[in-house]
Amino acid sequence: GQTRGAGVAVAAMALRRLLLRYFPPGIILEYVEGGELKTRSIDLLDLRPDTDVTTLVEEIQKREPLITASCLEHVIYLVQRLQEKLGEKQNHKFSLFKVLRTHVLPLTNVAFNKSGSRFITGSYDRTCKLWDTASGEELHSLEGHRNVVYAIAFNNPYGDKIATGSFDKTCKLWSTETGKCYHTFRGHRAEIVCLSFNPQSTLLATGSMDTTAKLWDLEKGEEVATLNGHSAEIIALSFNTTGDRIITGSFDHTVAVWDVGTARLLHTLIGHRGEISSAQFNWDCSLIVTGSMDKTCMLWNAVTGTHIATLAGHSKEVLDVCFDYAGQRIATASADGSARVYNAGTKQCIAKLEGHEDEISKVCFNPKGNCILTASSDKTARLWDAATGHCLQILEGHTDEIFSCAFNYKGDTIITGSKDNSCRIWH
Fold first, then answer.
1. pLDDT tens digit string along 294-313?
2. For the chain, which terminus, N or C, has the lower number of CB atoms within 10 Å?
3. Which regions are annotated as WD repeats (predicted)?
């Protein structure tokens, strides 16, 4: 009877196919269990160009029953492909592809969908516009807000919905395809200044000057919860990759960690001596990084809420902070005109990005993590080597400060948004 039981167990969980995930490196297992198609991922965040792949895959096989002897060779091949991708040198020179004069009144924000095939712009003109990246054509103008459209987002990775948060205290959910408004979310008592979709695209979180954040059900179009706990405006919020936690950063100098399912406040991260400018989880949800007007960036244990390290070094406010996709490096941008790269494990500063002539308001890694993009008030955006801090390229042409910059998922397209009222697309 022993053997028959084992046979049933294997049949109950059958591997359908293996998919590669380049950023951050991993393999997605698609399998059938109890007649239902499921997926599970094996993260390979520590994969390096010199990793012994065979040994690594044998280790994985010990822990992962879905990977049987028969597919071992295939898994080795896939991991080698990921390794090759990591080993590719970054020598892509970006050149200006298009300049879009997007709105009559100033821009507030720009954002890509995952592939970078489309992007959105928010504006003081009370609209959000959807653009086709390749043609530079305006696809939709999302109209209906009665004040500045300030916060905008796609529900990536899907990209079929757009959320807009406005100074009119409402948030709207739109169809990317038709440009129609699905829902208007009402309930905040002051301007909405930040928003984010959860990774499953079932919830939207909004943060407001009324000191609260709210969670909204996208399907039903109604409020799920109000996150009460801050004593000043919430200006940053972010879900973790699993979607069970959300953090809110406030002018009250604290960051709050909330349980998404129960809307309970789990931790308050206390330590900064100035307003919070940005806050983010790393990929495996173990760390939180926060940037503040107190000139520092802090690293926290996301599970316990305890302070791990203070990353000091900037001489003025830290305006933006982010992890790379694998969650192993941190980049900070400051009003002192420099950016820095820290190792999340050792907490050491590994590179200083110096060259901008004015404050840097935005910083981001390319998906591969070997390149950093900064946007500055000096009217330029710059590309930097994440390991050495060398400036690879200066993106020039804007005639006023650049407040937004982003990569698409492949890392071969960049968008910059400026106070000169134009967006520039770089290939």
1. 999 999 999 999 999 999 99
2. N
3. 100-141, 142-184, 185-226, 227-268, 269-310, 311-352, 353-394, 395-427
Quote the CA–CA distance of 54 and 77 in Å, as a whole number. 10
The distance of Cα 41 from the centroid of its chain, to the nearest Å, equals: 19
Q: How far apart are CA 160 and CA 167, in angstroms?
A: 24
CB of 183 within 8 A of CB of 163? Answer: no
Residue located via tokens 């982010």: 322
Q: Return the half-sphere exposure (C-beta side, CA atoms, 13 A cut-off) of residue 132.
A: 8
Q: Is 37 left (phi over 0), alpha (psi -120 to 50) or beta?
A: beta
- Evaluate if pTM is beyond 0.85: yes
Would residue 89 be called left, alpha or beta, if left means φ above 0 and alpha means ψ between -120 and 50 degrees? beta
Q: How far apart are CA 39 and CA 28, in angstroms?
A: 7
pLDDT tens track for 356-368: 999 999 999 999 9
Q: What is the pLDDT of residues 222-258, one digit of tens each?
A: 999 999 999 999 999 999 999 999 999 999 999 999 9
- Edge-first strand listing for the sheet containing 234-239: 234-239, 245-250, 255-259, 265-269
For the chain, the residue count is 427
